[in-house]
């Protein structure tokens, strides 16, 4: 092109500024190509002044230009380009580079006048201290430097607030996000800032403050659905189930409608806050729930709260969504609220069973059993090697893959076993004790014992092994209870004894054991066991957790059904017996 000339540089830099703004607006993002345009402009300025800037970094180039170029008519164009450069750096989260540039753009008097007090954010202080030089009226601008300064202040506060939030510095994050909320941005961005304020307050343990911020976000932009999702999460934390379910229902309805985005009523700028703030934590906080996730959450919360009829309806709706197309309906990213699909089927079976729809529950479990059977190896060993290599070997990746395969096989085994367990209880509720015994006796007992050889279990497989053991215990209790119903008391006793070997001290198995002994007329043994178990600390309703880990939701109804129902009457009978024997030792 033409060699640079000092008289033409103000116009040239203004044209460059406008063209870069248009390029950014057209691409809807701040990209590296435009930043390179600024660099070429600076090199032409130095060339016109008889200096050279080749080989310098962008930061060094700016320092050289601002130190060596003193022409008054170049100050405003250079400051405008400096603001644009700062915008690119903010978009790249290079906050230190942006702060250094504004330190160069501001003179000592400006910095002294806007004295940075202790604890004040340096970048915001430098941005506020920067005075935009007067612009020549003859050079039209598509976006003024003053407007750009306001947007930079908002973006800087928003970005740093997100960084502090991610780092766990919540009071600082709250202060910076509040600063951003008072800045210059569209309603859409303002709603996002209030959503982040709500998340920050929630993490600070201030749920009511969080709700205020999240509701403010929805008032500003009713299409900010992530705010509604967070509202539901806060109500869940507060234990306000009714409000949580209402929020989830509204969220599902809004997602189903898929209302097109409303046109912004805010003034349109080519450089906007949303172009400069796009960090992973913001994407995480503003993650949009998929309708299938929200439908599942509605089902899950209803089941947890005992709203069985509503839970059944939501589970069946969710399964209908799956029928429409699995990949389209189920988000596959790591942030999804959905569990594995067999677990959803088992939870649905649990809801159907509690609603009295036992045949439907049996059918639902049969689907899980049929789908998982072929995925389980004939023999599954989950022991840990006694000798571990001191340094990683080439086969370490292969070993990790094998461990992952074993984990998956254990999951399939647990799901199939849980299917048989639910079928056993369903048949029992239908009064079919013999069919119930058959189901309790299948995978959860003989097959599970032969397929899962647990010697020294690796830590990573413990949760799956503990769930399997609990299912085996519940199956033994279920089968033993049916044996008692059928008058087969000796077989029932063996099952309860086996159950106590799997999980010593389990209150339900212990109580059933005492009842079996009592029915066998072994009253002295029954009384001795009853006294022993009465004195030992019992788990709450037999729902002990494996090393603090809760059991899956699909097992909760089975845990309740396995609870011994005649504790009070059995205890009364044993006390009467003990009182009689103490008065009459010969008996």
List the helices and strands and how they pair.
Elements: H1 9-27, H2 32-48, H3 58-68, H4 72-91, H5 95-105, H6 108-113, H7 122-129, H8 145-167, H9 170-181, H10 187-203, H11 207-220, H12 225-238, H13 241-257, H14 273-276, H15 280-285, H16 291-304, H17 308-324, H18 326-329, H19 341-354, H20 358-372, E1 380-381, H21 396-429, H22 433-440, H23 442-451, E2 452-453, H24 462-485, H25 489-502, H26 507-519, H27 523-535, H28 556-562, H29 567-583
Parallel strand pairs: 1-2
Number of helices: 29
Q: Can you summarize the main beta sheet?
A: 2 strands, parallel
Task: Give me the count of strands.
Answer: 2
Question: What share of residues is helical?
Answer: 55-70%
What's the quaternary structure here? single chain
- What's the shape? elongated
Structural class given helices, strands, pairing? mainly alpha
Portion of residues in beta strands equals under 5%
Radius of gyration: 34 Å
Q: For the residues shown, what is the average pLDDT?
A: 84
Which consecutive residue ranges, at least 5 long each, have pLDDT under 50?
384-396, 446-455, 539-547
Strand order of the largest sheet: 1-2
């Amino acid at each position: 092109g033409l060699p640079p000339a000092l008289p033409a540089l103000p116009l040239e830099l203004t044209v460059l500024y406008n063209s870069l703004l248009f390029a950014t607006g057209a691409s809807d993002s701040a990209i590296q190509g435009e930043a390179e345009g600024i660099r070429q402009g600076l090199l032409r300025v130095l060339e016109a002044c008889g200096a050279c800037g080749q080989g310098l970094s962008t930061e060094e180039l700016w320092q050289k230009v601002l130190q060596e170029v003193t022409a008054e008519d170049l100050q405003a164009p250079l400051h405008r380009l400096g603001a644009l450069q700062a915008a690119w750096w903010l978009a790249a989260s290079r906050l230190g580079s942006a702060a250094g540039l504004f330190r160069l753009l501001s003179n000592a008097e400006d910095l002294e006048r806007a004295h940075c007090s202790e604890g004040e954010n340096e970048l915001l202080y430098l941005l506020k201290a920067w005075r935009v030089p007067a612009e020549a009226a003859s050079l039209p601008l598509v976006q003024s430097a003053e407007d750009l300064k306001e947007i930079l202040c908002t973006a800087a506060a928003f970005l740093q607030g997100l960084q502090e939030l991610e780092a766990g510095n919540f009071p600082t994050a709250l202060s910076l996000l509040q600063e951003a909320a008072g800045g210059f941005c569209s309603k859409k961005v303002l709603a996002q800032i209030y959503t982040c304020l709500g998340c920050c307050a929630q993490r600070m343990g201030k749920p009511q403050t969080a709700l205020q911020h999240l509701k403010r976000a929805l008032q500003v932009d009713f299409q900010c659905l992530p705010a509604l999702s967070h509202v539901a999460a806060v109500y869940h934390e507060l234990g306000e189930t009714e409000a949580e379910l209402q929020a989830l229902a509204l969220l599902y309805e809004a997602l189903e409608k898929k209302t097109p985005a409303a046109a912004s009523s805010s003034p349109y700028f080519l450089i906007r806050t949303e172009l400069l703030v796009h960090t992973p934590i913001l994407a995480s906080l503003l993650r949009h729930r998929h309708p299938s996730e929200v439908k599942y959450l509605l089902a899950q919360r209803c089941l947890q709260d005992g709203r069985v009829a509503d839970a059944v309806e939501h589970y069946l709706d969710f399964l209908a969504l799956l029928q429409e197309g699995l990949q389209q309906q189920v988000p596959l990213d790591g942030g999804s609220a959905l569990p594995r699909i067999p677990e959803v089927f088992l939870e649905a079976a649990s809801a159907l069973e509690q609603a009295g729809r036992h045949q439907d529950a049996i059918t639902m479990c049969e689907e899980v059993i049929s789908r998982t059977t072929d995925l389980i190896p004939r023999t599954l060993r989950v022991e840990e090697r006694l000798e571990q290599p001191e340094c990683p070997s080439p086969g370490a990746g292969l070993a990790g893959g094998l461990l992952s395969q074993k984990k998956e096989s254990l999951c399939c085994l647990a799901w199939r076993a849980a299917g048989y367990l639910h079928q056993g209880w369903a048949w029992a509720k239908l009064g079919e004790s013999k069919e119930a015994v058959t189901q309790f006796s299948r995978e959860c007992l003989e097959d599970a014992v032969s397929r899962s050889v647990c010697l020294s279990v690796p830590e990573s497989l413990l949760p799956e092994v503990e769930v399997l053991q609990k299912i085996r215990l519940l199956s033994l209790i279920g089968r033993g209870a049916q044996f008692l119903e059928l008058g087969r008391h000796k077989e029932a006793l063996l099952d309860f004894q086996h159950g106590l070997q799997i999980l010593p001290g389990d209150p339900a198995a212990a109580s059933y054991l005492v009842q079996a002994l009592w029915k066998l007329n072994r009253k002295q043994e029954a009384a001795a066991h009853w006294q022993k178990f009465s004195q030992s600390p019992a788990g709450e309703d037999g729902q002990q957790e494996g090393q603090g880990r809760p059991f899956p939701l699909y097992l909760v109804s089975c845990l309740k059904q396995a609870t011994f129902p005649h504790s009070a009457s059995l205890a009364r009978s044993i006390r009467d017996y003990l009182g009689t024997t103490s008065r009459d030792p010969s008996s």
